[in-house]
């Protein structure tokens, strides 16, 4: 644990894990304050999990969340009041510790000299110069004072962001690029389905961010709070300002766990799991191995979601294990899908239906999970009937695999970049913002109608790299993205239905049918998923090697 001492009785830290609580207790901490909202990261335990561990340890625990970079004066005051009321010493945490430090600083603005606040934060390793300027300017962040300025700024160090940086450097070595991302760890999230099936172990899907950011690219380890496109500036956590000539936005999306009543309190126990969280994918495999009879429910929320096939991948692999171990006949499997079809591209549905019948899966379309009672093992769904009417139904379960609703990150939804639904408003072919010429976006947060998959980002990255360099006058022509996405649907251990398609659900196979027929389960496609795609991701996509991903060019 990276604990930073701020002042008498108060320390701050990055994201805690439930396993950290016992050590905090040993170190004498008596209270915990969480300043991070749930759902900011796929490796983030929900507050309810931390609260359970703290309460079991006899420690006070409180939830005072703030969006990254948007700590208000009122929240600062609330933090001071809460801190004063708690037994000392107190540990406050968020993603990196910056929000907690900012809240403390705002709470002390009228109690201590500003140089003393700045010195305490600096000693703890936090740069609060932007916060101090905000206090002096009565709540306003002066964007004219930039902490840094770069030719290209990329928001997000996930698959899309690092791949785009690598593709830019492959075309223009020495280009001045900065990636803004607060995370220390980068995850190969497509591998979590196989972690939940006992094929991969979780640590194999993780690398340090520092080891992946291309050489020569500046890493600004912070979170973005707001955009000032009219000034070519972004505001960071801590009220710092970074300016750019071209901006690329690819922050991923937000998993909205709190949209389902009761889910945060029971996720990770009582048979409730999700492969969409790094630390819970192993729990999925544990539940699958332990279940010998009963009902297993797998859910899918309304679109759009990250990797639309992932909810049923978990289901098929679980059913395959139960079949192989001879207990499938004693287990009732239900797929509760908020949508109306099994898969959005009709060509792949017949092969999937063969497995639905093989595993005797009950398909419940129009079923959207709205509440979970973990103690009584019941799940409640809003059901849309064929005539359009709606009612509420409750199902009991022994195992529940949940896929949460998904939205654009908070700082995107409230920004001038967003459309009316909160997604970044971009041209689906060029990936350029529809109204702001020097901004491009790719990955999960854009409103282009492609599947939100790593395969899509792999093809989008070279398109954006070319078009950004064209905007800088370093290349000519316009690169076009055709909506390509891929979803390797793991229907059993050892076989995959390799769905590949472009805009409009047009089938777009990468291989000849005699090698891999994507509409049929294939062992070769499984080898592609298990053996080839992970190294292709780490050593190809993230290194700017655009195998089978060269963009199409058109004249400007």
Describe this entry's structure for a reader.
By secondary structure, the chain is an alpha/beta fold. The chain has three domains: 133 residues, Protein-Tyrosine Phosphatase, Chain A, CATH 3.90.190.10; 253 residues, FAD/NAD(P)-binding domain; 151 residues, FAD/NAD(P)-binding domain. Helix content is 28%, strand content 24%. It contains 16 helices and 29 strands. Strands 6, 7, 10, 11, 12, 13 and 24 form a seven-stranded mixed β-sheet that branches. It has a five-stranded mixed β-sheet with strand order 1-2-5-3-4, with helices on both faces. It has a five-stranded parallel β-sheet with strand order 15-22-16-17-18. The longest helix has 18 residues. The radius of gyration is 24 Å and the shape is globular. The protein starts with a strand and ends with a strand. The mean pLDDT is 94.
In short:
With 556 residues, the protein is α/β, with parallel strands linked by helices. It folds into three domains: 133 residues, Protein-Tyrosine Phosphatase, Chain A; 253 residues, FAD/NAD(P)-binding domain (3-Layer(bba) Sandwich); 151 residues, FAD/NAD(P)-binding domain, CATH 3.50.50.60.
List the helices and strands and how they pair.
Elements: E1 4-7, E2 10-13, H1 21-26, E3 31-34, H2 47-56, E4 60-63, H3 73-85, E5 90-93, H4 98-108, H5 114-124, H6 129-136, E6 148-155, H7 159-171, E7 177-180, E8 185-187, H8 192-195, E9 206-208, H9 209-212, E10 218-220, E11 224-228, E12 233-236, E13 241-249, E14 254-255, H10 263-266, E15 272-273, H11 281-290, E16 294-300, H12 310-324, E17 331-337, H13 349-358, E18 361-365, E19 367-373, E20 378-384, E21 390-396, E22 399-401, E23 406-407, H14 410-413, E24 439-441, H15 454-471, E25 478-480, E26 485-492, E27 495-502, E28 506-507, H16 523-539, E29 552-554
